[in-house]
Description:
The protein has helices at residues 80-85, 143-150; strands at residues 6-11, 16-21, 24-32, 50-58, 66-69, 72-77, 92-101, 120-123, 139-141, 158-162. By secondary structure, the protein is mostly beta strands. A hairpin with a 2-residue loop joins β2 (16-21) and β3.
Amino acid sequence: xxxxxxxxxxxxxxxxxxxxxGDQVVGEFPISTAKNGAGQxxxxxxxxxxxxxxRAMIGAQAPLNSVFVARxxxxxIYSSVLAAEHPGRDWILTRILWLSGLEPGLNRFGSVxxxxxxxxxxxxxxxxxxxxxxxxxxxxxRNHDLIELFDQIEVGTEVVIVEQLERD
Length: 168
């Protein structure tokens, strides 16, 4: 019996992330994509479309609500007190799935390169709403959902980001 490929679909319209094994959806999670909508351009703070892959998985052993800056754990654990000390900070928590584009000219190379834009799937504070686009370009998830996803994928897993998923 062959092992079925696992992939991820990010549906911007529904603000949902689907984990698929073959043609079967094995996980579905609420997310928050970019407040500025879909787009590829460096500096746009938009969520990039197209085919990507997980380039790196960061934070495998980090505690829940660990704070990351520049893909490194700071040693801090997110709390309302820490949030009050750093208003306006775009919190990257718990785990990071760093994306790399697979489509030259669309999301790879030049001013549209997803990896060089530092686009991640990452955890966010529980106080941040899911189901509405509010990020600076990344895909935000609930921390427990992200850990569940993280444990089922590997580096190289394909991630397809679409404006709206066509449903059967």
